[in-house]
Amino acid sequence: MEVTSPQVFGGVSVAVIAAAALFTLSSKSGNSKRPPSLPNWPLIGHLPYFAKHLFNGTFYVYLRQVQLKLGHITTNNLVGKIEYHVSDPDTCKRIATSPEFVRTDFLLRPNQDVFGFALFGMENGPLWKKHRKAIVSGMGPQFVRKAYTVTVELMDDMIRMFNAHIDSSPSKSYELNIREYLSLITLDVITRVAFSHDMNCLQTYDDDRRLRKEESASGNGNLRKNIDEVSRVGVTRLLIPSFLWWFFKVTKRHIAPQNKFFDDMIMGFLGPRRKAVEEGTDGEEGINDLLTVLLGRGDDGEMLFSDKEIRDECLAIMFAGHDTTSNTITNVFLQLCKNPHALAAMRTEIDDLTSPNDETCPAFNDLTKFVYVDYVIKETQRTMPIIMGIDREVAADEIEVLGYKFKKGDYFMANNRAILLDPEIWGPDSEEFKPERWINHQVVDGTFYPFSAGPHACPGMKMALMEAKVVLIQLVRFFDFELVDGQKLELVDGVVNHLPEGLKLRVTKRGSEKSREWVTAV
């Protein structure tokens, strides 16, 4: 698409939106000389250029197109909100780590009804430090080791499920949406480890599929749809003014069913634990998890966090602790199916490091030996980034960035996709999936930050990488995977960019003779 061409979408001309925009005023920046920009429309800025992408859920594509067209720093006018997007490595590092930039509550501000108090969206300050300290203290080394044990147990269950489905099928294959299973297993991990609560999502979902022979209509079956809808609403609200929310179906009324769904889910474990704390009976259970930290008391005997803070933080942990991981692993399977050479190399490493007579998962300390698996994960994070970028505001009174001057409050984003696919950094084959590029690769600062960077780096990074490795090693050891035709395989916008319908695969048992023939062929 040519970004210089205004769009007409959904049968509604941009002129309709322009008329509505007359009720608002454009925000102003103190920067009289701005970086390159597409031509501005009165009042509505660049809406005619990105409206179609917004409706299609591919705003991240639009941002990269603008960066390719205009250079490493660009000005974007989002219906009066001025943003500066950057894909220069040194500047991206500066945005993420320098005290010249600060994170505000830009994400939470329009989403108070969903994530009022969530660490991943809090602005810098005392409240953020308080939440950050609690989360980090509850996610130490023991947290990761406990998560490893739970992940291995759940993977054993998943493998048994897959085998049972395959054995009962006349075709000796099982067609599934792998993201559904990955979402549920990672949610089970985070709730068991962080909250000591077994939601039993994986088993419930699989049992229901067996009975219905269709996608579950139960609570767990709707989990993925509710997560994706909350994600869509959250991002859309960021990109358009509130007077357009009804038009895009992102009002408080539209999101009410999702809020109730997650309220009921969280109160299922938070309510009993809160009651136990209040009655002084929680100590008898010997529970020591992240929820214990959130339910703790200060030196004055008062609760550290309000019910609203704990509810929102639990929801944020569930999202951040499983949605990013499940979508990343889903993307890995897509890349492996599209690139059989990478799957063959990865499988060779796994076979070399595991015993065919021992189906147990490799020990926790042995996971570091699977270096090619690491390369596959990193290359997937590079070619299919699930986070649009790192957003910050200028904290200093005045700074200079790439030859332009900016003032306090000016809004920046380190454009993740633009820098991860930049041929100047990754070479002329930057858009190709090549795990081998990571062999002896020295990451340039500011070019690869899948878990963010600086003071806001993800505290669950080690857990997420461990989960991904365990899942991939165990599934690739025992099964073959094939893409089902007719799928939408382009990521769509969200708090986490994701495949809109998940990823449908046809799974068969891996036979040693068949596998040798297949590996030889590729």
TrEMBL record:
It comes from the Eukaryota. Its cofactor is heme. GO terms for molecular function: heme binding; iron ion binding; monooxygenase activity; oxidoreductase activity, acting on paired donors, with incorporation or reduction of molecular oxygen. Heme binds at residue 458. Gene3D superfamilies: Cytochrome P450. SUPFAM superfamilies: Cytochrome P450 (SSF48264). Pfam families: p450 (PF00067). Coiled coil: none annotated. InterPro entries: Cyt_P450 (IPR001128), Cyt_P450_CS (IPR017972), Cyt_P450_E_grp-I (IPR002401), Cyt_P450_sf (IPR036396), Cytochrome_P450_monoxygenase (IPR050121). Keywords: Heme, Iron, Metal-binding, Monooxygenase, Oxidoreductase. Belongs to the cytochrome P450 family. This is Cytochrome P450.
